[in-house]
Amino acid sequence: MIVAMVGASRCTPREAEMAEAVGRELARRGAILICGGRGGVMEAACRGAKAGGGQTVGILPGASRDEANPYVDIPIVTGLGQARNLIIVRSADAVIAVGGEYGTLSEIAFALKLGVPVIGLGTWELSKGGLSVDAIVRATSPVEAVERALELGKSNRSRDAVPGSA
Amino acid sequence: MIVAMVGASRCTPREAEMAEAVGRELARRGAILICGGRGGVMEAACRGAKAGGGQTVGILPGASRDEANPYVDIPIVTGLGQARNLIIVRSADAVIAVGGEYGTLSEIAFALKLGVPVIGLGTWELSKGGLSVDAIVRATSPVEAVERALELGKSNRSRDAVPGSA
Amino acid sequence: MIVAMVGASRCTPREAEMAEAVGRELARRGAILICGGRGGVMEAACRGAKAGGGQTVGILPGASRDEANPYVDIPIVTGLGQARNLIIVRSADAVIAVGGEYGTLSEIAFALKLGVPVIGLGTWELSKGGLSVDAIVRATSPVEAVERALELGKSNRSRDAVPGSA
Amino acid sequence: MIVAMVGASRCTPREAEMAEAVGRELARRGAILICGGRGGVMEAACRGAKAGGGQTVGILPGASRDEANPYVDIPIVTGLGQARNLIIVRSADAVIAVGGEYGTLSEIAFALKLGVPVIGLGTWELSKGGLSVDAIVRATSPVEAVERALELGKSNRSRDAVPGSA
Q1: Minimal Cα distance from D56: which residue of A?
Q2: Theoretical Cys-Cys bridge with A42: which of A35, B81, D57, D151, CB 3.0 to 4.6 Å?
């Protein structure tokens, strides 16, 4: 199982704490963490994953591996700028969003478009015409977020496995 | 001036009507229309632009020019899937969003991240923690949407022209 | 008909002269010129096309329209770095390569992979195991290069038009 | 150290044998294998790497993880088609090319453009104006190819580490 952590490269201490707990719990449950590979929420999640003995993949926007945070095991250097956000989402069974700026919103949007489950910890809320049309699954703690991500990611995977359903 | 029209490839008659009016007004005001080059809102906007004597550019997701709607003058074939959404937004001075599904939300998110003005006609509303944090400029008619797009796009351009401000 | 001009952003006076003549001839024959939108061979070709009254599209690698040469009519801002080379090639009916560095070689390689005809004016030669396996059509003058591009581009297009052949 | 294996998804038995030996030797030397994640040369290299106890990363062109060969540990789903070739090359310290079709040529071209060392086992030869301008380092065996890749990849890395040299 591969789970994406999305969130801003600058974040509050509370967001960093949640991201780190998500990373640690993903590691404990045997999931690989994929993220944008940089600072803030991404670095906190990678730090947590490594502390938990897990593995981390960073999908970097720029042209050099040097921009990866020190907890990235496998740095993927895309040189594609923000277009790398789609790769993070497509490669994941589920996405956990913490806080978030507009870059995070784009990742949530792509995930929902592609049918990848999104679990939110204090992130964007979406509505149209004043009515909530929010497909983000809300979690109230990092452990609950990971629990839901693994559960929803698993059913998402099984659906893929049905021949001809892609 | 280059203005992007973003919206779904399947849309309501009302959305198509608005998109067509936007395209016609952009043409009348001498702006080039850029969009995803396919059906629905995109086709309606291109049809309007051509009816108004304007020029249209379609940034296509697939591997062939054949997926362009018949009103695209310059088909750009990216083969990049949804990553082409970023090219539409980056190439525009302003973005007008009509209605919209998750793909449109991703385009809005990218535009806001890049600082490209977004004008909305009945599209997504954004909030965090129950508070609206909505940077989308709301318009109530196609003509007003184009008016705002040209005005905001122009100041956006001038800002770019200040040396060292990029 | 859309024809791509590929070549380096730094080039010899002889290469610039050939590229400019290619641009002028494409314009005279009513073809749209597509290129990387920057300096050297690209700028010379755009200058020729504009002198001939033609239209030019620049597929830019960076994040801003400001890097386009002054003869680009439609700047497409990709933010994708060298990955934009594929878009140039995919969007063209035929590719004309002048001189060329490794970036040009990548464009030739992609064109040959995709089945887009490549016409060469003093560009790379390819072999394997000491045997030439060169699918580049060699031209000896800009006018001949354009002639072959339009001819081969046309048959390439017709092939696409056969239903089910994509 | 991360080393890329590039080569066609259909290959001769001799090429598959070489690729498998490259994968095994990379694993033995502690390097991570990165490749396009599909069949032919890529699958053979991954199979070799897994047999040797190594780790494999597949940068997939399509929209689903299902196209990965069974020896890929970390499937990265790009949805970018051939543009994923650039990611393979950018993410590697060195590139080993076996045999090869035009897709492989594009990867070689990008690597040479980016200054990533390319080691060739029976692959393309490049010339201009009848003169060889071939920057590909030729190896005569898989073990030699890996040896050169690790050696050249290492000096390439050190160069990157000099502050301000990027």
Answers
A1: A74
A2: A35
